[in-house]
């Protein structure tokens, strides 16, 4: 495949040529044109060079949804540095692990997140933090984004990124208890953008709603980079709460493309949507990802929004992230759709031999979007990418028409409200509590095809711990979305002959109890 650009600076410059006066970013009452977005990005890029950020250096972004995130991202990549967007819901120890793993030199950070971020410079190799939204006092180590925007130094673009260079590193939840950094190149991302551009028939007139977190690989690709690829617009909404404001902004700013997770679409399908929104909104595509959509949600949604298409898709960070999506003219309920154009997919057995159509196997993918590997994890990379094929760990059926149906997850992954959660990370934190003898964390599906996190804890003989104490410990060390909804204290956890806790037995106990209600 060939792509129109080598890097994002070229893509932004082309968008200026096509639509320089057009609005790149709507932010409340502010409109930022493509020319202005390019100018601000260049100023911040020159500032980064002035503080000695070089080609290939890692720059972390712990930034809430804002124009500053977009500007910082394009500034970092303009000079060939590597952006590292980080989940803003993490806690200090989790931030420290990622910053140390990628050896981030500089970090852009929202002042509103300072409680968890302060003190990180002592735990990491960070040389500077550029605070967005103000800083108490600008020093060599604590800088102001406002100063970066005001930079008038000359930008040196003598060395520009090439298409196979790293654009960013996305950290995914790891089965070992620590997240893994997926190395994503410009080619990986352009492959996704080109495919999505074709499948969704994206136009310069399209306006993309951005209310899910920009640090997420899907939001970053589909709602931030894709609009620039098409010289369209993004509409920023700082938070999903209250959701009425999301709908209000979609209506007032005339959004045409809307990205959400199943929990949002389930709520929208059941909520009383104002009649004027239903008939005067301009949304032509609703895109769903992150977890399976329930058939009832699709039916409810179609009744509420008959003039738009709700398209379910599938992806993973290791594939930049989009693999497949239903089409505007070809859809199957319960399916995550067809692969993007040019993407090869197979359902295979344990020997990586393709199984017959309609039979269950692990999904493997081969395309330009497959990551370069995991940072500092050669063994995990070799296990995940075999002869160019990415092993997704997801069990699927592929029908005679090529539509992919997710059956189950081979990996021990929980997807709760669109966020990936690996039980082992929570279990390892539980084991740090002195009174805990054994722990098991599982995901229980709810009525909306989402999953709730449930923990089972066996205490050491003669020791006590309350559920509230355990929860308080987890809240201190883990992001809130990883804290189990229910924590059950058990005298003994079921085990097999080798002593391994039988999670399937625990899961069945919960499901049986639910069925009896």
From TrEMBL:
GO terms for molecular function: acyltransferase activity; long-chain fatty acid-CoA ligase activity. The chain crosses the membrane at residues 70-90, 210-237. This is Long-chain-fatty-acid--CoA ligase. Its EC number is 6.2.1.3. Residues 425-500 form the AMP-binding enzyme C-terminal domain. Pathway: Lipid metabolism; fatty acid beta-oxidation. Pfam families: AMP-binding, AMP-binding_C. It is an enzyme of class 6 (ligase). The lineage of its organism: Bacteria, Pseudomonadati, Pseudomonadota, Betaproteobacteria, Neisseriales.
């Amino acid at each position: 495949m060939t792509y129109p650009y080598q890097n994002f600076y070229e893509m932004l410059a082309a968008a200026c040529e096509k639509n320089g006066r057009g609005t790149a970013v709507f932010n409340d009452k502010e409109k930022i044109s493509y020319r202005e977005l390019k100018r601000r990005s260049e100023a911040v890029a020159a500032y980064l060079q002035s503080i000695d950020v070089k080609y290939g250096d890692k720059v972390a972004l712990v930034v809430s949804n804002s124009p500053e995130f977009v500007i910082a991202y394009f500034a970092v990549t303009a000079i060939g540095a590597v952006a590292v967007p980080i989940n803003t819901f993490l806690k200090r120890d989790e931030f420290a692990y990622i910053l140390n793993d990628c050896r981030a030199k500089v970090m852009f950070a929202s002042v509103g997140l300072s409680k968890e971020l302060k003190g990180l410079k002592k735990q990491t190799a960070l040389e500077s933090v550029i605070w967005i939204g103000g800083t108490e006092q600008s020093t060599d180590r604590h800088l102001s984004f406002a100063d970066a925007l005001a930079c008038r130094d000359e930008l040196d673009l003598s060395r520009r990124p090439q298409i196979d260079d790293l654009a960013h590193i996305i950290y995914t939840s790891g089965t070992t208890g620590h997240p893994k950094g997926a190395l994503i190149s410009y080619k990986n991302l352009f492959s996704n953008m080109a495919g999505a551009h074709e499948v969704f028939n994206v136009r310069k007139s399209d306006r993309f709603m951005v209310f899910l977190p920009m640090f997420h690989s899907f939001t970053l690709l589909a709602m931030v980079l894709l609009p620039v690829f098409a010289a369209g617009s993004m509409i920023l909404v700082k938070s999903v709460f209250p959701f009425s404001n999301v709908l209000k902004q979609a209506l007032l700013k005339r959004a045409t493309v809307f990205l959400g997770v199943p929990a949002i679409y389930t709520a929208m399908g059941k909520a009383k949507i104002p009649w004027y929104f239903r008939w005067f909104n301009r949304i032509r595509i609703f895109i769903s990802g992150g977890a399976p959509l329930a058939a009832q949600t699709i039916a409810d949604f179609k009744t509420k929004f008959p003039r738009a298409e709700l398209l379910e898709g599938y992806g993973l960070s290791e594939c930049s992230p989009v693999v497949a999506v239903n089409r505007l003219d070809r859809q199957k309920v319960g399916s995550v759709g067809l692969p993007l154009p040019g993407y090869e997919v197979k359902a295979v057995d344990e020997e990586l031999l393709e199984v017959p159509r309609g039979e269950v196997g692990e999904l493997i993918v081969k395309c330009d979007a497959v990551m370069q590997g995991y940072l500092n994890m050669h063994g995990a990379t070799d296990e995940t990418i075999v002869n160019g094929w990415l092993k997704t760990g997801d069990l699927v059926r592929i029908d005679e028409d090529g539509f992919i149906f997710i059956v189950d997850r081979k990996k021990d992954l929980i997807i709760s409200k669109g966020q990936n959660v690996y039980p082992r990370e929570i279990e390892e934190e539980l084991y740090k509590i002195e009174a805990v003898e054994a722990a098991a964390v599982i995901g229980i599906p709810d009525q909306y095809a989402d999953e709730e996190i449930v923990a089972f804890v066996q205490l050491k003989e003669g020791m006590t711990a309350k559920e509230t104490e355990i929860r308080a410990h987890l809240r201190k060390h883990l992001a809130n979305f990883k804290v189990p909804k229910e924590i059950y204290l058990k005298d003994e956890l079921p085990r097999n002959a080798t002593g391994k806790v039988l999670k399937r037995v625990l899961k069945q106990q919960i499901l049986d109890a639910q069925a009896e209600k």
